[in-house]
Write a structure and sequence with these properties.
2 copies of one chain form a homodimer.
Chain A (H helix, E strand, L loop, with lengths): L1 E5 L4 E6 L5 E7 L11 H14 L4 E5 L14 E2 L2 E2 H6 L2 E3 L5 E4 L3 E4 L5 E4 L2 H9 L6 E5 L4 E7 L2 E8 L1 H11 L13 H10 L6 H13 L8 H18 L7 E5 L2 H13 L3 E5 L3 H12 L4
Parallel strand pairs in A: 1-4, 4-8, 5-9, 11-14, 14-15
Antiparallel strand pairs in A: 1-2, 2-3, 6-13, 7-8, 9-10, 11-12, 12-13
Chain lengths: 295, 295
Amino acid sequence: MIGVDWGTSSFRAFRLGPDGAVLERRADSRGLLSVADGRFADTLGEAVGDWIAAGEARVLLAGMVGSRQGWREAPYVPCPAGGAELAASVIAVPFEGASVRLVPGVSALDAAGVPEVMRGEETQIMGVLGAPGMDGLVCLPGSHSKWVEVRNGRIAGFATHLTGEGFAALRGHTILGRMMREGPADIDGFDRGLARAGEPGGLLHHLFGVRTLGLTGRLAETAAAAYLSGLLIGHELRAALGSDAGGLVVDLIGAPALCDLYARGIGALGGRVRRHDEDAAAQGLAAIGGMTQWD
Amino acid sequence: MIGVDWGTSSFRAFRLGPDGAVLERRADSRGLLSVADGRFADTLGEAVGDWIAAGEARVLLAGMVGSRQGWREAPYVPCPAGGAELAASVIAVPFEGASVRLVPGVSALDAAGVPEVMRGEETQIMGVLGAPGMDGLVCLPGSHSKWVEVRNGRIAGFATHLTGEGFAALRGHTILGRMMREGPADIDGFDRGLARAGEPGGLLHHLFGVRTLGLTGRLAETAAAAYLSGLLIGHELRAALGSDAGGLVVDLIGAPALCDLYARGIGALGGRVRRHDEDAAAQGLAAIGGMTQWD
């Protein structure tokens, strides 16, 4: 089987063995944004046509390719959703020479009834916690960080935080960015921001402190971006975990450098992490593909 | 006496009677950013030279003109600071034909020891609460909203929130702005954002809800900016006042449309407001000028 994690700006393909082992892999920049005029079938053929010619007859696609902006919309499956629910809701798209299916996203309501959506993350989660009966809290940090509660191997609910994108907007487009200079990673600045998030006053007040600490010479220009990052991640962690995460274990999926920061923040609150790399997507595609009705 | 509120992008001059009454006023766009090569004296002469020629010999300037980026730096006066402390720390600058003084800014430390600064707002506050013995909480909403505690007619402490600038960055430079369309003021959208701020999950999570409510058709594109504004102002108010402001009276100084929104938010928490227009600056300049040693 072929599994593809196809996002807005990335395309990662895996040739998977019957046991889910990754036999071969490819990554390039054929993200949705690079696909003109709905040429998804052609793009897929260019990317993995040789694998199909060599005998792979099943292709499972996850990620934004299944959104309204993608190949075709695979409607969100409401929580609770596990591998079986996802596999039962895959959507077929026409393709010459292979069966191609799109994995749906997952929707939820938060505690106050506000809707939540994910697309792509559900597949990574299935790769990590897809075993029936497994419970846990999964965090996928990023532009839109996801905190996912898994119960009995199904996604029970989740909450998204606009942390990464908020960081970029605040750094790039407010007065805070004007006092920032590139420099080596400043883990001390990050830790200070993280600690600040636990003090009273609220995030909007803490943000202004990035400026005043700089103005008064108490925060170096090369440490200010790390401080801002710690501040935002610290607020996210406290909202997701409370101020005491003692005894809690969080499954962390994402880019290693970003997961380092989250692991550090979760540790500062007393919690522990289990780390998974982005190959979780390959494992999830294999798991969902194994439950999919292909004919 | 002549009083001038001279900010980064604005210039407002008042000709003041001995009792502080505004005899004449002028406002234009001669803000700091428009003054080239340090030509502050020339600019002042162009703006109010006729008033000086007609006999006004004292000119008091407040605002960013007293910052490092202005005419000359008038160092911050630490809290507690009232009219007497401000008047004792004015800085003279050379000017042909009149005595010209710069009002200093005010600095503080927040509860956690993080520095705070204001410049310009101290003069507006003196215009509103300058009377000795007056106590209260003053809010000056804006790009960098100030919450100021006044005790015995002096600024005892204050906290700044990056609300207005954060709003502009999030609206202009994140995915949230892509689902916003201009429309008539949507007070219902604002109220919904305000209420959302009182729900669990934290600001970064609430921000993502602007997107999902839009995606699911539960928030109109023309209401989304108002919702985001309510969300941020709601978080600011709860950080500044707590979730119950019953019995509290806040003195509100600023642009009328923005003060409308803050008054609405403070009212929703059970508090009341006293409103002051931006002429507070004129009253503050008169008050500080009356205590200044001019010779």
